[in-house]
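ok posting inputs for the nicotinamide-adenine-dinucleotide job
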Amino acid sequence: MQTIAHWVDGKSFTGAGESSAPVTNPATGVVTGEVALANVADVRAAIDAAAAAFPGWRDASLARRTQVLFRFRELLNERRQELARLITAEHGKVGSDALGEVARGLEIVEFACGIPHLIKGDYTENASTKVDIFSIRQALGPVAIISPFNFPAMVPMWFFPLAIAAGNTVVLKPSEKDPSASLWMAELWREAGLPAGVFNVVQGDKVAVDELLDNPGIKAVSFVGSTPIAKYVYQRATANGKRAQALGGAKNHMLVLPDADLELAADAAVNAGFGSAGERCMAISVVLAVGTAGDELVAKISERARTIKTGDGTRDTDMGPLVTREHRDRVATYIDAGAAAGATVVLDGRDVTADSESDGFWLGPTILDHVGPEMSVYTDEIFGPVLSIVRVESYEAGLALINSNPYGNGTAIFTNDGGAARRFHNEVEVGMVGINVPIPVPMAYFSFGGWKNSLFGDAHAHGTEGVQFFTRGKAVTSRWLDPSHGGLELGFPQNT
Ligand code: NAD
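and the output
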């Protein structure tokens, strides 16, 4: 069985922490590795390495920094299959989905290759007589990234390409459930020529997270995970004077109007509801079927969902297992509760026969119809392959449900009415909106993030907000002495 260690100062680091946690292949139920859990001294070693590497990396020319980024991009592109296989082995998602995750991460690396343009300042000549003003953006120092299990490669890549491109150094704390992707990416940075100490990985749990939040050596924290932990991380990091962005959980609604193309809507609901076994923060978990769209839409969704092949992600399957046995059982209890509360079980994933000989953490696609907003299957983030259908009378009733939800990550409307779609994107209180697009994850050059309990902090991930998050601005006012120098003047400077 392999031991999964930390990565500090350009090499594997065993650390002195005495705890570890098992890493399991969710498709077989077999424990494949033991991940080290950092103690405080291990985290400090990583922060010290990041601090020591910072002055050299900050002062490296943009030409040098982008050369390393381009090399990282090339290596990642060539070897994406390797990374995808690692993801499938520890997360369980099917091969095509793991490759999709790598591709979306790669887009952000490509965006970060444009850092010379993104980080450019402004210059005004003669703001006052012979006085010039210019603005620059500078790196912050060592920054921490704390990531969730569901995208072990893409979510860290929402942050570290831009953080590194901008001249910061990084300590990544990945999920202890699927830690190997982080080490694979660390090794790739080394091959790309990144100086030792610029990218470090500490494996761990709350002990490691708390040290990253408290240690004054860390200047900014990017967190992604469940809402209660996001809120905790944001509050503790900012109380310690750090810059923080903490992306939390979600409950994403898809509003289907009666005039929508129901074939398109049904395809979208199935893809977005059951892709990655529903373990995506942008998964659709609720379909709001307006008026007469209901019965026909549910029939089309269930007809499609029945064709989904659940099984081992290394085989020709559509949907893999859930990440742990505990999580699988927790999701199943929501189905029990929904049925007990009066929802109609149209398709029951508890009975699934998976394409596998192993005792994996299987739960098939599940559709619950006539779900009420008071049921736990509606109110809670389930993070599994369970699609709830809520019947609503009108556009207004659907919008009111979405806007009263405590989460505001993603949403979608399906309609052929441009006026209704425009009204929706104007009125809905959610950070990412799809119009006939079910998973509206913005491209790298836009910023990703939700509203309300789906994001704590001001800055969304990547895009220009990402560049701003990982840099701070400075405005310089400059005058070079010449014979017009005017002598003493104690009044507040005014422009002349
Ligand atoms: P999680 O909150 O359990 O863990 C996230 C990170 O926090 C991990 O690195 C974990 O080790 C750490 N952590 C866990 N408990 C902690 C504690 N008590 N104190 C400090 N740190 C702790 O989330 P998860 O189960 O890994 O991921 C799924 C969740 O992430 C879902 O809620 C999902 O919606 C959310 N998510 C959100 C987005 C988004 O963009 N908003 C993206 C992906 C995932």
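notes: The chain has two domains: 2-248+454-477, 252-435. The first helix runs from residue 40 to 59.
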